[in-house]
Amino acid sequence: MAARERLICASEALEERGDGVRFEIGSGAGKRCGFVIRFDGLPRAYFNECAHIPVELDWLPGQFFDDERRLLVCATHGAMYEPASGFCVSGPCRGARLRRLEVVERDGNIYLQED
Fold this sequence. Notes:
By secondary structure, this protein is mostly beta strands. The protein has strands at residues 4-10, 21-25, 32-39, 42-47, 72-73, 80-81, 88-90, 100-101, 103-106, 109-114.
């Protein structure tokens, strides 16, 4: 079965290591939050849930990076994640990973690939 694509945002909305864009996945009681950031020139998307306890990561909407803009950080637990892989390098869930979402960038837009 081919994946469906859903528009998340325009490519220009994502600056390298800048604020991310939040978006909803699913509907009704199964609705969840995801986010996309730009890191090393590519869009990277994850479920907006810490691997330790499923709380949203961002300090304020769309603010996922630490002060140095090198790692993603959980505002609740301080867990630190590599932006390219979602791998937790520090904090209570060290060794765990954020759940990645598939995205593509095409024609000036970022699309979520849904099953």
